[in-house]
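Input.
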Amino acid sequence: MAKEKLLGTKVVLEFGGSYIRVCEVSRYKKKTIARLVYAELRSRDTAVISQEIAGLFKTHHIHGRKVILNIPRHLVMTRFLRFPSTKEEEIKDMVNIEAIKQIPYSSDDIISGFKVTNSTSEGYADVFLAVTKVKTVDRFVGIVRNAGLSIERIAVGSESLLLWFEGMRAKKALSAASSNIVIINAGVEYVNMIFLSRGKLIYVRSFSFPAQRQANENILNEVVKSITVFQRQKNLSVEKVFLTGAEKMAGGIENYLREGFPVQVEHIKQADSVEVDARSGKDFNGFSFAELVGLGLKGDEGKIDMLPDRIRSENEFHVFKSNISKTIMLFAFIILCSLGLIGKEIYDKAGMLKKLKSRILTMEPLIEKAKRMKKDIEIIKKEIRKKPLAIDVLAGIYKLTSGDISLYLVDYESNKNLVLKGSAPALNNIINYLKKLEDSNLFGSVKLKYTNNRKIKGTKITEFEIVCYLT
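Output.
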């Protein structure tokens, strides 16, 4: 059984408040919740948290060393934006620019993730953007690594809750007739709310509170206030509310909504219609595991990943290095076996092992070289993806410039204005040239900065300067 779990498990971890929560999903043959574990944090010190996580994994025999980390929604800043493109790479570039605007920090101090929620027939994409500080992510990563684990992905609670609901909707055949619905995950320290219209995510809301203030009137009022604000801002009427999470908290919200709010409410247990191993642990209904269950069962379908590229590259390199070492060990083992067949008494096993270790050490420079090559390739890829390239700009200008226009200066720097200086027989030629530039899809905000009439060897010419930017 241990081997089966090692080969087919997905482990989801969340910490950030007063508790550690872990969900282990066995994916061997079929998806089953193998562990649902929670423990109260005794300290805010990162070293202590790492020790507690490591102890929790050991005590409950959680085999996976790679984890998906779930960050609660209230620890990130979110926005819903619309971009004039449906292409993934173009959206990514626009998201990176927009993310810098959302937090008053430099681009090196923030990290973002996004999910395309809808694409329109006019070529626009609606995007859910999540932004947080690198310092916050680095703290989470450091704690997990010091616990002897590695992070394969960092998810955001809003999308995790959506994955849970989509899984429940498929298993329970939940009614999809309601156009505008709210899914509420009621935890002991925070409430997470996502709003869907015709199946599309259009609004999120989350708020945290001390664990001892479960289901008090202020929290219940905040839930109603969030629904009211959504209806007013979006000019939509919520038709149904789906509730899950910690049973006591969810029950309090359900009763409050049924008594004083004109909306249909359906309470779904967080592990309903999901097979739960009898050895999964103690009763978990006092806590919310819905988001963790959603990631464990449908995490492969998630789009948002807040894991920094540098950490992802490090993870890939560690895998690469491990595979190289294993390959060397395998070949060495084969060679040793072959030599053993010829006459194992001839060879000193200790000496062969020493030589083998020495050979592995000689591979270290090659591995470092491979790491540098990989980094160089990533830089080259990044530069190639930058649009427009200088050659594209020159090709576009050449195509649009007719024989009656003479250019003697083309000045362009990345992310700055393009300056064209030249001459033409008459002003009319310059106006026609301006129109060509404006009608192209390469240049925007085309402006004629100045013109100047001159005579050269008796021939009248009009000099000009045009300024525009690259779209």
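Residues 309-343 form the longest helix (35 residues).
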